[in-house]
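re: ur question from earlier - yeah i can do the single chain one, its not a big deal. heres the input i used so u can compare w yours
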Amino acid sequence: MWQAKFSNGDILKEFNEKGQEVLFRTVLEKLDDLESLSIILGEKMFTVRMTDGRFTFNTNGEENHFFISDQNITALSNIRPIYFVREQVNLTVASNTIISETSPTVNFTALGFQANVKNSNIKRYLKIFPNGAFIVKVE
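and the output i got, formated as tokens:
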């Protein structure tokens, strides 16, 4: 589940209090006010701050902060969130006909940012697996 926090203190969650899905487009429409974006997996929460590109990993109330930036990066401009879910569906095909397909399973969720630094575009994100493990991606 994602959760977005805005500079005025408002928090928007993927599902509202009635259990209805809130489209991520709603976050993108308020991008200028987006302070942070989080992914919540049970007791674990992964957060990226849109103000400075800092990541936070929170588990059982303990927070760990870290940056995934080159040491010579001092100022990020035009920072925007990276968020997507990569799923897999297994198909059984015979004679060009789908015989069966499985329900989608999540391979990983990506959370991070894309920004400009000295006229270059950079991407830094976490590949968060369903079990809460993650790896860092630098592009």
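Residues 112 and 125 are 4 Å apart (CA to CA). not sure if urs matches, ping me
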